[in-house]
Amino acid sequence: MSSVYVITGPSGVGKGTLIRALRGQIPNLELSTSATTRAPRAGEEPGVDYHFLDPDEFERRVEAGDFLEHATYSGNRYGTLRSEVDARLARDVPVVLEIEVQGARQIRESMPEAVQIFIAPPSPEALRERLHGRGTDHPEVIDSRLGVAVEELAARGEFPHSIVNDDVDRAAAELAEIVRDCER
Fold this sequence. Notes:
single chain, alpha/beta, 5-stranded parallel sheet, 4-stranded mixed sheet
């Protein structure tokens, strides 16, 4: 059976950047496309970046048991569709989940064999700068994300692997090393 890699950490910590670098180094890894109720950002493609669902459809799918994990984050719902993971595992392809801490905890319960990796910022100030610098969220949303980040950073010790994203190349190399070790 192929592996499931859960990459988690606060919003703005660079999970997506590190996953892109990881997939460049280990091309057979596939990224699970999450579902969300938030509106698409400029340049995001439905089915590629996210499965964009309205709140009623998201709830219907929760009730149907379609999600491996789901959580509410900054007023929007996010989740990993079971079909996204099962299709890859059936093809013996390792899959990466980019999810929030709430969801990572759910995956830990339902798939204890999943490899859980926490990405941390070098400091809370660096995280604030990253969230402001990416220019995708309103100040109120950034403040909400930073409030959640405090709780998420406190959970870092729950995860067997932790990487500080203070240098993207170094952090990506460390992430790739963890995955390669697990795939051996």
